[in-house]
Amino acid sequence: MTDVAKIKKTAAEWQEQLTAEQFHVLRQSGTERPFTGPYCNSFDHGRYDCAGCGQPLFLSDTKFDAGCGWPSFFKAVAPEAITEIEDATLGMVRTEIRCSKCDGHLGHVFPDGPPPTGLRYCLNGHAMTFTHET
């Protein structure tokens, strides 16, 4: 994965394509309540893709139970899949993560994950779809 072709759509086009929950998270930078979104407790073998554009984001073998209420991963499928942005909202400084292809809000990344990266990509379940692999 190298050059990522950007997807641009109007808000109306995104609303037609996405569920209300997906639109809130991906296009309005919303956050689902902890332990309420899909994939939080799922550890099936497969791949997690962006719900907005289908770009591969994370593999199941990098998913771990962080106990935080959101699906967590220690490594993206490729560095180019994720865009990191400083987020200074809510009285704190965090690193927001977005899909590099459609600019959909995915969640945040924190430096408190397990080896080998020490990172915890904390995602909204509604920002992703899952493809089972056998």
TrEMBL record:
It catalyses: L-methionyl-[protein] + [thioredoxin]-disulfide + H2O = L-methionyl-(R)-S-oxide-[protein] + [thioredoxin]-dithiol. Its EC number is 1.8.4.12. Keywords: Metal-binding, Oxidoreductase, Zinc. Zn(2+) binds at C50, C53, C99, C102. The active site is at C122. Binds 1 zinc ion per subunit. The zinc ion is important for the structural integrity of the protein. HAMAP family: MsrB. Belongs to the MsrB Met sulfoxide reductase family. This is Peptide methionine sulfoxide reductase MsrB. It comes from Roseibium algae. The gene is msrB.
